[in-house]
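User: Could you write out the 3D structure of this protein bound to magnesium ion? I've included everything you need below.
Assistant: Certainly. Input first, then the structure.
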Amino acid sequence: MEQTFIMIKPDGVQRGLVGEIISRFEEKGFYLKGLKLMTVERSFAEKHYADLSSKPFFSGLVEYIISGPVVAMVWEGKNVVVTGRKIIGATNPAESAPGTIRGDFAIEIGRNVIHGSDSIESARKEIALWFPEGIVDWQSNLHPWIYE
Ligand code: DAT
Ligand code: MG
């Protein structure tokens, strides 16, 4: 089944939003397949955001991501990449709808609490980067209550 990479950024961890964010994905019906709290080095953050390296905000973005621990996760489910982005909300919290994570918990683009893969291909790359050890293989017994 489809998987996505979700990361709670340092502001989300510092602000005590880890449980709330995990709950939103869990309650939706997605399956938690990977989870770890970690700090990342500059070179790692630069690799994660390599596609944005030419942007003027790149160095600030990297400083922010390395400024404290983050929670790296893999979530699984039907259409989890696109639906995960909907749960997260628009990149700029000023435009994120209420009810989305960024819409409910963030104000500025440079403190937008959470990352989610933007395509199946980026999810594949990001999961490989953040979980080189692999992820736990387990199946939820709730499956027939969530899928028809
Ligand atoms: P998203 O995180 O919604 O996938 P993105 O991949 O375009 O957005 O950018 C990655 C992060 O970079 C984003 O979460 C916040 C920051 N960012 C994006 N555009 C920015 C901008 N115009 N000014 C400042 N920071 C920005
Ligand atoms: Mg992105």
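Residues 52, 57, 61, 91, 109-110, 112, 115, 118 surround 2'-deoxyadenosine-5'-diphosphate (ligand 1) (CB under 6 Å).
User: Perfect, thank you.
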